[in-house]
Each structure stands twice: as C-alpha cells, then as structure tokens.
Amino acid sequence: MSRKTGHRAAFVSDLRAASARYPKDAGLAALIDELRARSGDFAALWGSGVVGVHEPLTKTVRHASIGELTLDCDILAALGTDLRIMAFTVAEGGETAERLRLLEVVGVQV
C-alpha cells in the first residue's frame, strides 16, 4: 500500500470507527453515503474493509507569495475520542524554514 493510500485508508478507518460508535447518527451516515457516491477511491477503500493507521508524512504546499513549502505532518489522536490534530513542522535551517521566516516579513507588508 502506498503512503498516499495508507493515509487515505487511515481517514476511512476513522470514519468506520465513528460509524460503529454512533450507529444512529443520520448526519454521519449521510456523509459516508455522499463520499461513497462522489469518490470512487473512497468507495473502494470503504468497501474493502481496509484499516489504516496515521503515520508521519511529508506534504508540499504552494504559497502564493513565497512558493513551495515542504512540511512534515503528524496526526495526533486523543485516544477514546474523535479528536485528531494535524501538526505541521519544518526542519530548522532548511529552505522551507527560510521561506517561512520570509513570510513573517511579507505578511506584515500586506
């Protein structure tokens, strides 16, 4: 399983667990039905029963003023709850750290 698929499988697993915890939640059921109807990838993952876990990953985003930023992403879960926190960090001294420092200056000028 690729990292991208593993990441997606982890979010599908979160939804599957939530639907098991809240079987009478009509809004949650409607969300899952809509995702299955609109996304072939989601429908395939949901139908497969695959279970994924959140693992650290790297994301690249493009900022309009300072260009590409490569960020480390960790997803923290509060056990026994539905709470997930995405924490983005960068290595000190790297190109992304320098660009983020530039954003501090650019942001003030807007």
TrEMBL record:
Pfam families: MLTR_LBD (PF17765). InterPro entries: MLTR_LBD. It comes from the Bacteria. Residues 7-103 form the MmyB-like transcription regulator ligand binding domain. PANTHER family: BLL4672 PROTEIN, BLL4672 PROTEIN-RELATED. This is MmyB-like transcription regulator ligand binding domain-containing protein. It comes from Sphaerisporangium dianthi. The lineage of its organism: Bacteria, Bacillati, Actinomycetota, Actinomycetes, Streptosporangiales.
